[in-house]
Amino acid sequence: MTTFSVRFLGCKVSHVDAHEVRERLLADGHEERDRADVAVVNTCCVTNEAVAKSRKEAARAARTHRRVYVTGCGANLAADAFAGLPENVVVVARRSEETPEFVAGDVGAIGCVQADARLDRVRAFVKVQDGCSFGCSFCVIPLVRGASRSRRADAVLAEIRRRIDQGHREVVLTGINLGCYRDRESGYDLPRLVREAGAIPGLARLRLSSIEINHVDDALVAALRETPAVSRHLHVPLQSGDDDVLRAMRRRYTVATFLRRLEPLRDEFNLTSDVIVGFPTEDERAFASTLETVRAAGLTKVHVFPYSPRPGTGTADADPVPPQAKKERSARLREASHEACLARWRTKIGCDDRVLVDRPGRGYGDDYCPWLVGADAAVGELVSVSGAAVSDEGVLAA
Ligand code: SF4
Fold first, then answer.
1. Mean pLDDT in consecutive groups of 10 residues from the start of the chain, 398 residues
2. Which amino acid residue places its CA nearest to atom 1 of ligand 1?
3. Burial class of residue 36 in the structure, from the number of CB atoms within 10 Å of its CB (0-12 exposed, 13-18 middle, 19+ buried)
4. Atom of ligand 1 nearest to the CA of 133
5. 364 C-alpha vs ligand 1 centroid, how far in Å?
6. In testing the pocket of ligand 1, which one of 13, 96, 134 has its CB within 8 Å of the most ligand atoms?
7. To 10 degrees, what angle do helices 323-346 and 284-297 make?
8. What is d(CA 124, CA 140) in angstroms, rounded to the nearest whole number?
């Protein structure tokens, strides 16, 4: 038996990948501990900063563990981001599907033990799709994760049932480019998967991790609306609110399309997004268009990513926007996003909601707005609340 610990950096897909390795090691009879022989660090490479953090985490783990497996997007980056680390660091440059098998094989199985796969007490991320075939000019993900591919629908639905049996209340369907989900053999696309996943008894909430605007069509909107378990929240990356920048990014939509497709959802759904600030062709005018688009689309929480060139991408050699301008634009956008969040939260005052408590005293409402609830609400419980006020952290329940 070997003791191990697993950590991840980056997005929800990285979270899922890390836990697939964890489950596999548990299933082989190894034990998870804070002070362990083996560490698995599932890394991220979406920005320079993410790679630097991943490297730091691997170096730190190498000092306190006998062996460290560096997995995930960072490990697959063409440029050797983990060169020069101590000899006990093993860089696993493999597809996500092969990584648990490889790590488990290297660690060595000691038997077959049924793992307790509860990863989070309340919320389970279920990966349904991986990779991306879109090829945005700034993005390294297709290079490190490969082309889009989907899991079989029966495997996805079985995993959701298993998660519910384990006690999870919420399931987040997760993918790199989720709208590309197709199980052609069984005739499933994402709207059908949403409807069937949402109908599984015992599931309190179903959410999508992120969806490209190209996939927000009538069929998906109808599936989201007509499935009661679906949370009234949608995360749709904007990246830029300027058509020239979108074209240079090789995104597949215009600002007008983005606004038109979200229009039917904007009052009912809490819409959140990602924006890249300081893309090579973004000037002040383009950035002003982004601010205006965020407002016009009714976006609330915007995750702001200051642009950094990634190796092997279309814009690998371009980074003309000065760091100070990126910093200043990022701050303006974060401020606008915070104001938009506060405005949405204020609409909850005097209104009822149901909060899924995911930490002591905190949880998320039906549209994934954060709530602060009484300390007596049990984690995992769905509590009825009424909004009394807002703070910088969310809606305060009466
Ligand atoms: S859609 Fe674009 S940004 Fe998203 S993973 Fe694919 S290439 Fe990257």
1. 92 91 89 92 91 93 94 83 90 92 84 45 92 95 94 97 94 97 98 98 96 97 97 98 98 97 94 98 98 98 95 94 98 98 97 95 96 92 96 95
2. 134
3. buried
4. 6
5. 27
6. 134
7. 10
8. 26
pTM over 0.70: yes
Looking at the CA of residue 132, tell me the nearest atom of ligand 1. 6
**Which among 339, 342, 352, 335 is positioned nearest to 387, based on CA atoms?**
352
Q: Which residues have C-beta atoms less than 6 Å from ligand 1? A: 132, 134-136, 139, 141-142, 176-177, 212
Q: How far is CA 395 from CA 117, 206, 325, 342, in A?
A: 32, 21, 33, 9
Q: Give me ligand 1 centre to Cα 154, in Å.
A: 26
d(CA 106, CA 99): 11
Centre of ligand 1 to C-alpha 88, Å, is: 33
